[in-house]
Amino acid sequence: MLPQGFGEMAEKLRRSTVRVLSGKRGAEGSGSGVIWTAEGTVITNAHVALGDAARVELWDGRTIETRVAARDTRADLAMLKLEVPGLAAAAKRDSTSLRPGELVVAVGNPLGFVGALTTGVVHAAGSVRGLGRRRWVQAAIRLAPGNSGGPLADAEGRVVGINTMVVAGGVALAIPSDDVADFLKRGSSPALGVVVRPVDIGLLVLEVVPKSPAENASLLIGDLLVAANGTRIESMDDLADAIDRAAGALLKIGFLRGDRRREREVSVRLAASRAEAA
User: How far is residue 71's CA from residue 189's CA, in Å, rounded to a whole number?
Assistant: First the structure.
């Protein structure tokens, strides 16, 4: 049974959720985002806001051209800045207070359905096998392409995470709201400019960000990253640690391409991190 006032809560959460479009017009990728502050800070996934700029569609249909003010590909978070007064900022909750079995709500724009809402329950909070050391809010809730970057909220409409992916078994993963707060404090981090997925022998490149260090070094979709500065890559944490150590310097990436019989190496120059206040 849904709690009293659920409909009003859901409508408020919809008004704090935006659609994020990035890439060239006519071939744009789309996802969701959360209005984090009334002053115009919007949080989404880094893999949703891939370029330096994006378009944001508000709940009332207005479309705003904006810039990516900060990005952390390791955390899969990006911050957009809107110059629009009186935005409906979402309420937030400390994600460490979540308990298994709690009701959660997701709002996003899956498969073109704007403002779609689904409900589920918290499954767990913690690390996930194969995804490294980082913590996730894990929920039994139905998500689809287009939900990425949107809010996962509790029964009172307070955001506890940013929806990111669905793993085997249909469990949805969200970046904890505490991690978002940390990201807003530190700003951008060094980035290679790839979206990857762990496989048996390395990290499979799914996307290469335009004008990124990875593109400049001619890495391609389908490459299999297997080493960084001479150390084998077995998880996303291994790659992220190597990137952090090499900030502002050269990072030598070992990878397999094509028939995957011969390992190749490319040198990538990473930019140092920059911080921008929220």
Answer: 7
The CATH code for residues 91-185 is 2.40.10.10
Superfamily name and number for 194-269: PDZ domain (2.30.42.10)
pLDDT tens, position by position, 28-56: 678 999 999 999 999 999 889 887 889 99
Q: Which of 76, 178, 223, 238 is catalytic?
A: 76
pLDDT at residue 276, rounded to an integer: 33
Three-class DSSP category at 191: coil
**Residue-wise pLDDT tens digits, 224-250:** 999 998 899 888 888 888 887 776 678
Ranges for all domains in the chain classified under CATH 2.30.42.10: 194-269
- Beta carbons of 189 and 151 less than 8 angstroms apart: no
CA–CA separation, 12 vs 180, rounded Å?
20
Structure tokens of 31?
A: 């996802």
For 119-174, write each residue's pLDDT tens digit.
Answer: 999 998 888 877 777 899 999 998 888 899 999 999 999 999 999 988 767 789 99
Token couple for 184: 């807003």
Domain 6-88 annotated CATH 3.40.50.2000:
no
- Mark whether 148 is an active-site residue: yes
Concerning whether 123 is annotated as a catalytic residue, the answer is no
267 has catalytic annotation: no
Q: Where in the chain is the domain with CATH 2.40.10.10?
A: 6-88, 91-185
Say which of 47, 189, 212, 223 is annotated catalytic: 47
Q: Is 181 exposed, middle or buried (0-12, 13-18, 19+ CB in 10 A)?
A: middle
Catalytic residue among 148, 177, 188, 189: 148
Q: How far apart are CA 249 and CA 231, in angstroms?
A: 16
